[in-house]
């Protein structure tokens, strides 16, 4: 199970995704934990079982148990937060000051470097389409010292993983 398996499963119309997967997996903008945590968190965020399975199996060889769990934590907490924060925005001004009231302890106690967890949260938030969360996590990771190139590398991984999940779903339905 691996990125190579995913690349091999992609049809000709998704050749660009195949090329992007290979390039991103060899990227040098992110350290190994940031890279594989981003792949894992975004694979989980695609909600595609085949994509998640392939990435998770390979990520286990690159991440500590703590980082593996934290990446999954980023995917799940952002699934909740992205819905709640988008809803506050949709509902408008009357809701801006309403207390969120949801537990989010993992954000402060993820078990990994804060910048890494926040980067994974940013990448998941891009898949989930939450502008407020994407921007907030960008501010945090930039404050933690990550560059815009590192941030956008995570965004490119998220975008590619979403495209791969789409292609895999299309092929499964054919």
Automatic annotation (TrEMBL):
Catalytic residue list: 130 (proton donor), 133 (cysteine sulfenic acid (-soh) intermediate)
GO molecular function, one term: hydroperoxide reductase activity
Source organism: Corynebacterium aquilae DSM 44791
S-S bonds: 130-133
Keyword Oxidoreductase: yes
Oligomer status and interactors: Homotrimer.
Enzyme superclass (EC): oxidoreductase
Catalytic activity, reaction form: N(6)-[(R)-dihydrolipoyl]-L-lysyl-[lipoyl-carrier protein] + a hydroperoxide = N(6)-[(R)-lipoyl]-L-lysyl-[lipoyl-carrier protein] + an alcohol + H2O
One GO term of the biological process aspect: response to oxidative stress
Family label: Belongs to the AhpD family.
UniProt function note: Antioxidant protein with alkyl hydroperoxidase activity. Required for the reduction of the AhpC active site cysteine residues and for the regeneration of the AhpC enzyme activity.
Domain Carboxymuconolactone decarboxylase-like: 97-170
Classification via InterPro entries: AhpD, AhpD-like, AhpD_core, CMD-like
Protein name: Alkyl hydroperoxide reductase AhpD
Keyword Iron-sulfur included in the entry's annotation: no
EC number in record: 1.11.1.28
Keywords, in A-Z order: Antioxidant, Disulfide bond, Oxidoreductase, Peroxidase, Redox-active center
């Amino acid at each position: 199970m691996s990125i190579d398996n995913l690349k091999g499963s992609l049809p000709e119309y998704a050749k660009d995704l195949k090329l992007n997967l290979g390039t991103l997996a060899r990227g040098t903008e992110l350290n190994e934990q940031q890279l594989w945590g981003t792949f894992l968190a975004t694979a989980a965020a695609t909600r595609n079982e085949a994509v998640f399975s392939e990435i998770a199996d390979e990520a286990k060889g690159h991440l500590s148990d703590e980082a593996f769990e934290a990446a999954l934590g980023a995917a799940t907490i952002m699934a909740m937060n992205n819905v709640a924060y988008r809803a506050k925005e949709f509902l408008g001004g009357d809701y801006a000051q309403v207390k969120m009231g949801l537990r989010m302890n993992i954000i402060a106690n993820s078990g990994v470097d804060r910048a890494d967890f926040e980067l994974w949260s940013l990448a998941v938030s891009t898949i989930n389409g939450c502008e407020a969360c994407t921007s907030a996590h960008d501010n945090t990771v930039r404050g933690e010292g990550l560059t815009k190139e590192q941030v956008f590398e995570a965004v490119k991984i998220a975008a590619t993983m979403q495209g791969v999940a789409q292609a895999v779903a299309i092929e499964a339905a054919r």
